[in-house]
Amino acid sequence: MDYDFITTCNWTSTGTFTLRAYRGSTTNVVTSYSLFYRKKGDPDWIETTDGQVEIASTGEWEIANDWNKSGNDVLTHSYHGITAINSCTDVYFNEDGLGTTVGNYFLAYTWYDCTNLTSMPLGFNIPTGITTVGGNFLFYTWSGCSSLSSMPSGFNIPSGITTVGNSFLAYAWTGCSSLSSMPSGFNIPSGITTVGGNFLFYTWSGCSSLSSMPSGFNLPSGITTVEGNFLYATWYNCSNLTSMPSGFNIPSGITTVGNSFLAYTWYNCTNLKNDAYTEDITFEFSATGVFGG
Length: 293
What we know:
two-stranded antiparallel sheet; five-stranded antiparallel beta sheet; mainly beta; 15% strand; globular
């Protein structure tokens, strides 16, 4: 049988574990949909209707589900809080069935608090055909993965994304204290012009091993309107961050901001040089709340 979303992880212990599933909200809907699992290499899938999986032996196991697409939302399953996996070795997306619009909470909580997860598979990426995302895209996806040291070479956000909702990448790598870098070329899609509240909210907060962002990393220059908490605490407590990339700047066309614009953005980045980012913001705003931090 063909499934739309399949993840393969390496399990270091056996037993009964409970997965979660999310579609369009923070509500765990795992009891409303079937998940399927099998030991890698086995011919048959086992169905679970309550999210419980029986891991009978250590090694690689596959977890699968159908998108069950409803409107613009898709179902994805989550290993939330499972510490028995130490690596993700494969991720499959049915890109044809996914479409260009993914809706709210895409990949939300997928590896949240998997504290022993050390790596994502080589070649892992988000489907490139996505152009429109709802709120909470990659929300808490790797948050709390304190053993994750890097994302795979070439990993990026789909460059064709032009429309985002609230909380874009919010908490995506929060607390990834072993994450030392983002891959070369990683960037925010340049076609984004309008962002909702909580854009990059706490995205790398607590990444205390992160020493730099990739060369060329920047914010989309066409952004003109932002809501509250733009870049709020984005690099909060990144105590090893020494610089921002040459040319990094705040979009000069922004004329309206909400509350907490840049609040705590580089708070407690004790190794960040004074000239590492632009301090002179010369353009005018029509509305400001709490401005910096």
